[in-house]
Design a protein that fits this description.
alpha/beta; 8-stranded parallel β-sheet; 9 helices
């Protein structure tokens, strides 16, 4: 079975999947891309993700968290709601949480507060963290270091940063999630070289669908929507950039995801 792939970040509850969500899951599974981990970005989307994942035991999992864009909507009971969601067997990670100083949709001090709260929750529940960082590297690293006694496992999802940032994350024992950004010959050029520096036991892959459709797909989707079925294309691009075989990338990233999220998958 060793050719299966795990998509660690799919925004499956996004409105663009409303009409054909089940078919998207089935298409991916038919290509050996299973299970999928649905990203929660607010209490509401995390609840939707966990409810949907519960319908497909072993095929779908979910994260529970509040994205920095949504941090401004957090309230006194946010952490308790996330704690309850995290108690469900299909919920395997706390996040997507982090800092985003690129858009600043939530005030920066509010972003920092709720990232800290979610790091503490992950520590309390002994769960991995699914992290987002954009244009906030210094504060992000400072916060993770401040909480390093409670951070056991964490992945920097959709990494697109600099060599210095990457090496800092690796030195901190973080996992790195790579998306179809690496397939973009304009924006992803630096990533094509940097990916060689990621230790194989720290690498995971994700589509971040419906966003970040790989630009170099031989046949592009007519509606431009990304979906998990294209994960193999990302694996092949990473293989090409690192001089490794596609099989090696597939096996390593799958094993890493199973270990990181504590997935037990029937072969």
């Amino acid at each position: 079975m060793g050719t299966s792939l795990i998509d660690i970040g799919v925004n499956l509850m996004h409105r663009s999947f409303h009409a054909d969500r089940e078919q998207v899951v089935e298409r991916a599974a038919a290509e050996g891309i299973t299970p999928l981990i649905i990203t929660g970005t607010s209490v509401r989307s995390s609840r939707d993700a966990s409810q949907y994942a519960a319908r497909y035991p072993g095929k779908l999992y979910a994260t529970a968290g509040v994205h920095p864009h949504d941090a401004k909507n957090c309230s006194a009971d946010t952490i308790q709601q996330l704690r309850q969601l995290a108690g469900q067997p299909q919920v395997v990670s706390i996040g997507e949480c982090g800092l985003d100083y690129n858009r600043d949709f939530s005030p920066r001090d509010v972003q920092r507060r709720w990232l800290g709260e979610q790091i503490q929750l992950a520590g309390e529940l002994n769960m991995p963290l699914f992290l987002h960082e954009r244009d906030a590297h210094e504060d992000f690293v400072a916060m993770l270091r401040e909480h390093q006694d409670v951070v056991d496992k964490a992945v920097v999802h959709c990494f697109t940063g600099t060599a210095r940032e990457l090496h800092t994350y690796i030195e901190m024992d973080l996992y790195i999630g790579i998306t179809g950004w690496i397939c973009d010959e304009r924006r992803g050029k630096h990533l094509r070289e940097l990916v060689r520096d990621i230790p194989l036991d720290r690498l995971m892959i994700e589509t971040d669908a419906p966003f970040l459709t790989p630009r170099n797909l031989p046949v592009k989707p007519k509606d431009g929507r990304n979906e998990p079925i294209y994960l193999g294309h990302i694996a092949a691009t990473i293989a090409e950039c690192t001089g490794r075989s596609v099989m090696e990338i597939k096996i390593a990233t799958t094993e890493n995801a199973k270990r990181f999220f504590g997935l037990t998958i029937a072969e």
